[in-house]
């Protein structure tokens, strides 16, 4: 059974700091990896999608990397802002898995003024 | 790309009652998914639906659950006889389906329906 783990579970940083969120997964036979943001009581907002053939994707202040061989992905957030406070989830889809996503437990980020 | 919309936003029901949760695509998407998130736990896959058929389902998706797209537009999840443990946020998601069997595409999630079973 594929497992996705996110470390740390919670993180508090001062505004302006650069930070890295980690995601690890068992079984490197993934099709893609997706990072989401979830605000309390809300739905999931897609941030970045990395195909298994790609090494990284960038969107604004966000950069996600993927290392399939080691089963790891990182989400780098530059110049963090209080509005970045949310729970960040990573999810992987498996080859031959019809694109169903297996989610991690998330990292709860708080960016303080 | 806009997400799907879901109704209702919150549903309260008595144990043993049937509930229907609705997902309304904004455009003519082909690939749909249902996930659930029990409070404080991971988001879990329930079922995927392509071209009006179930393409994959999880162990959670037992005989109490069913999905359909009755009018070719709304995509529904029905729970026939709700249990206390069905209390969760239920999310509908869709992809554009440009990739192979929907794979490789970004999944866009709706805002969710909070189901409370009393």
Structure in words:
The complex is a heterodimer of chains A (113) and B (118). Chain A is an all-beta fold. Chain A has no helices and 11 strands. Chain A has strands at residues 4-7, 10-14, 19-25, 30-38, 44-51, 56-59, 62-67, 72-77, 86-94, 101-103, 107-112. In chain A, the strands form 2 sheets. In chain A, strands 2, 4, 5, 9, 10 and 11 form a 6-stranded mixed sheet that branches. Chain A is globular. The model of chain A has no long low-confidence stretch (mean pLDDT 92). Chain B starts with a strand and ends with a strand. Helix content of chain B is 0%, strand content 48%. In chain B, strands 2, 4, 5, 6, 9, 10 and 11 form a 7-stranded mixed sheet that branches. In chain B, strands 1-3-8-7 form a 4-stranded antiparallel sheet, with no helix packed on it. Chain B is an all-beta fold. The A-B interface holds A 31-32, 34, 36, 41-46, 49, 51, 89, 91, 93, 95, 97-106 and B 3, 31, 33, 35, 41-45, 48, 50, 55-56, 58, 91, 93, 95, 99, 101-112, 114.
Strand pairing plus helix content of chain A: what structural class?
mainly beta
C-alpha-based Rg of chain A, rounded: 13 Å
Question: Which bin fits the share of residues in helices of chain A?
Answer: under 10%
Task: Report, as a whole number of angstroms, the end-to-end distance of chain B.
Answer: 36 Å
Produce a short descriptive summary.
The complex is a heterodimer of chains A (113) and B (118). Chain A has 113 residues and is an all-beta fold.
